[in-house]
Specification:
Layout (H helix, E strand, L loop, with lengths): L1 H7 L6 E6 L5 E6 L2 E3 L4 E4 L8 E11 L8 E11 L4 E10 L6 H21 L9 H7 L2 H4 L2
Antiparallel strand pairs: 1-2, 1-5, 3-4, 4-7, 5-6, 6-7
């Protein structure tokens, strides 16, 4: 797991930390993670006044271009701890996302998305929505894209 974290994390200048606040409500904020290979932890500072608590947490690293292409993402789950000078995340799990692991990651993203969508719709008793493809094609017409 640490091999994957140390390979991919340096590609991201920032990440989204999600932890719990003092009322046990999930709380997210952007951080600048730094690898600490000696301790196999991820360190970062939090702005003064942040209300996160030590305990379970996760770090989402993701990026894409301005057209939402070239997506690359992963999640690190672990335990958030306060130190005298900063915070650290002790990783317990690396979850690869799109763009991590080559072409198979994109295929996994599509297949998992279809499966998860079907499960969600079934669980909530909802029909699969219909898509007005003609309207979408009309919106993508060159004269409309230039406007």
């Amino acid at each position: 797991m640490w091999t994957e974290i140390s390979r991919y994390l340096p590609e991201f200048a920032s990440a989204v930390l999600t932890a719990f606040d003092d009322r046990s409500t999930p709380y997210s904020l952007r951080v600048q993670p730094v690898l600490d290979a000696g301790g196999q932890v991820i360190r970062f500072a939090l702005p003064a006044g942040q209300i996160v608590q030590s305990g379970k947490a996760c770090l989402l690293c993701h990026r894409h271009d301005q057209n939402l292409w070239n997506l690359k993402s992963f999640v690190v789950q672990g335990t958030l701890e306060r130190t005298e000078t900063n915070w650290l995340l002790r990783p317990s799990r690396f979850i690869p996302g799109v763009g991590i692991g080559g072409m198979s990651s994109y295929l996994r993203f599509v297949l998992d998305g279809r499966k998860n969508t079907a499960h969600y719709l079934q669980k909530h008793g909802m029909p699969r929505p219909t898509i007005d493809w003609d309207q979408i094609i009309d919106m993508m017409a060159p004269e409309k894209r230039a406007a």
